[in-house]
Amino acid sequence: MSEQVDVLVIGGGPVGAALALSLKDSPVSVMVLEAKAAPQRDPRILAMSYGSKLHLESIGAWAGVEDATPIETIHVSQKGGFGRTILTAQSAGVPALGYVASYQDIHHALVSKLEKGVYLEGACAAEIDLSESWGTVDFDYQGKRRQIAAKLVVMAEGGKLVEHVREIERKRHEYGQWAVIGQVSTEKPHKNRAFERFTAEGPLALLPRGEGFSMVWTAKPEDAKLLLSLEKTQFLERLQDHFGERLGKFVDAGPLTGFPLALSYAVPFVSKHLALIGNAAQTLHPVSGQGLNLGLRDVRTLAREIMEADEIGSESMLEHYRKMREIDRKGGIFFTDSLIKVFSNEIPLLSGGRGLALASLDCLPALKDAFSKTMMFGAGARSIL
Ligand SMILES: Cc1cc2nc3c(=O)[nH]c(=O)nc-3n(C[C@H](O)[C@H](O)[C@H](O)COP(=O)(O)OP(=O)(O)OC[C@H]3O[C@@H](n4cnc5c(N)ncnc54)[C@H](O)[C@@H]3O)c2cc1C
């Protein structure tokens, strides 16, 4: 007889850990399998929306990321074209539009609140069987193959194992872009402003982080490799040329890392005894920092469905979860994908249209307000929490 739990989460990244923490004080039994034996350094710096901050607060994890840098203004523009939009926390009626923190700090804040028996480090899921009345998962732990049965299996493993689940198809679109990320500093202070600058090669984001900025520079793979190989002074010159003088001179840059970028998403994102959340359900382009935020909204909905279910993992519970997440998920995929397709080119007609769209958004307070709310709380959000 294998071990049994109500909910088995495969993948203990920020999204899987947030689900386990959301169920902590409920009667639901949960176990998280995390393949890594110990937390490893992850260079990603993430912008969390104001909605995500409220969510982390509600599950008791915000205290661990309190030194996150608030974003009070977002400045959106395009290189070589007219039109720009400025979103402010003040006009959106919130203390900050978002907060910038390291993947590491967010992850630690969540995992440190979980009990050891709930979060199994070094446990790598290998096979999933959904054909019986419970889902069963075979996993490798401390040199042995073990099995666990669950009323509901939740995949939060980032998307790799999903590709081996017969019931789920994983759609994929390569952007032919890499993100080059690292910490940079400028002559002028950031004043809690974030910048998203669209260029024909891809977006360049500067997020306020500590005294400087966390940079996400999207470029073609060959250009990204070149950027990664440059001496610091040469790199700073390139960055200056790419971003312009709005922040004065770029004066320093820390170590850089490259990430290949693709859109991939699961169809369907539920099956018998199975629900997908976070990057396992949808892995997005990092433009406009939507991935973790969308994943945390998956968590909030799924946790509520689990706690309110007559039968955990039943078809009706999963169908309700699917319906509740459909609009926001499709919205997130469509929004980020469209931004890349519309902005990453040099077609003159499109450049004019983009400029007009940015300028119009800037001039229409109601539209801007609706846009800010969608970015903070998701598409189709009826309430903050
Ligand atoms: C350059 C870059 C910048 C980004 N910026 C932002 C941003 O500003 N804002 C934002 O919201 N999002 C951003 N994102 C997206 C964000 O990083 C992801 O959406 C988020 O990390 C997803 O979390 P997750 O827990 O779903 O998956 P992951 O972080 O991928 O975690 C998955 C976990 O599952 C584990 N795992 C894998 N396979 C197995 C297995 N077989 N068994 C057990 N465990 C397994 C892994 O070890 C890992 O710990 C960015 C992404 C990139 C690449």
Q: What does this protein look like?
A:
The chain has 10 helices and 20 strands. The mean pLDDT is 91. The longest helix has 29 residues, at 315-343. 33% of the residues lie in helices and 33% in strands. The protein is an alpha+beta fold. Flavin-adenine dinucleotide binds at residues 10-16, 33-36, 44, 46-47, 124-125, 156-158, 160-161, 179, 181, 216, 259, 278-279, 286, 289-293, 295. Flavin-adenine dinucleotide (FAD) is lined by residues 10-16, 33-36, 44, 46-47, 124-125, 156-158, 160-161, 179, 181, 216, 259, 278-279, 286, 289-293, 295.
Q: How much beta, percentage-wise?
A: 25-35%
> Could you say which overall geometry the principal axes of the C-alpha atoms support?
globular
Spans of at least 5 consecutive residues whose pLDDT stays below 50 are none
Distance between the termini: 40 Å
